[in-house]
Amino acid sequence: MDTAQTLDRGLRLLTLVADTPGGLTVTEAANRLGVGRAVVYRLVTTLTEHSLVRRDSGGRLRLGLGLLHLARRAQPLLADAALPALRRLADQVHATAHLTVADGDEAVAVAVVEPSSTMFHVAYRTGSRHPLASGAAGRAILSDAAGWTVSTGELQPGAYGIAARIHHVEGLRASVGVVALAPLDTPTVGPLVVAAATTIAAALT
């Protein structure tokens, strides 16, 4: 039971640090977790040994580089699960389809599929980042709505985007979207994007 409790506290601390972009002190972490400072110190020591947490020059707790390794291992699995639905969506809509996940205050494209039937389309690179509050993909992630989000020229002049959030996947803040060089038929494309998001959610659960 003690081992399980320690693991639970360690994971809660890791989540707390991840949700606090500016970092936090040991005292702040102890107060937020409802435990003593000594407990937090022990947890930090273990997490630091595995490079999951680090202490900056001011002594504040921040995420460690070890999490980047874990994230890089997880992203290909996420992309592989999404690719069939993205390919189908790209060819249905004749536009570039993408899977985007939240990374702090930014949206990151982790999988991109270009349509096979068009000569000209938006070039959107895997790994591209932009603020969550800008563009259809980011705003869809921030939205709790079951429908879709539309954007026009927010990230690239002349580009049109439609995106829908992926719901019901624990721990995942992500969206599926399409981006095109011409206005999209929203009443037609919106439901296709939502359907792709639902399909990907099912593949991940």
Which keywords apply here?
single chain; 205 residues; alpha+beta; 6-stranded antiparallel β-sheet; two-stranded antiparallel ribbon; 6 helices; 8 strands
Short description:
Residues 4-65 form the HTH iclR-type domain. By secondary structure, the protein is of the alpha+beta class.
Q: Would you give an account of this structure?
A:
It contains 6 helices and 8 strands, in the order H-H-H-E-E-H-E-E-E-H-E-E-E-H. The chain has 205 residues and is α+β, with helices and mostly antiparallel strands. A 6-stranded antiparallel sheet has the order 5-4-3-8-7-6, sandwiched between helices. Strands 1-2 form a two-stranded antiparallel ribbon. Strand 6 and strand 7 form a beta hairpin. Helix 2 crosses helix 3. The model has no long low-confidence stretch (mean pLDDT 88).
How many E-type strands?
A: 8
Percent helix, as a range, is: 40-55%
Strand arrangement in the largest pleated sheet:
5-4-3-8-7-6
The end-to-end span amounts to: 28 Å
The major beta sheet can be summarized as: 6 strands, antiparallel
Going by helix content, strand content and strand pairing, the class is: alpha+beta
Can you tell me the residue ranges where pLDDT is under 50 for at least 5 consecutive residues? none
**Coarse shape:** elongated
Give the overall average pLDDT: 88
Q: How much beta, percentage-wise?
A: 15-25%
Number of helices: 6
Sequence of secondary-structure elements: HHHEEHEEEHEEEH
Computed CA radius of gyration, to the nearest angstrom: 20 Å
Oligomeric composition of the shown chains: single chain
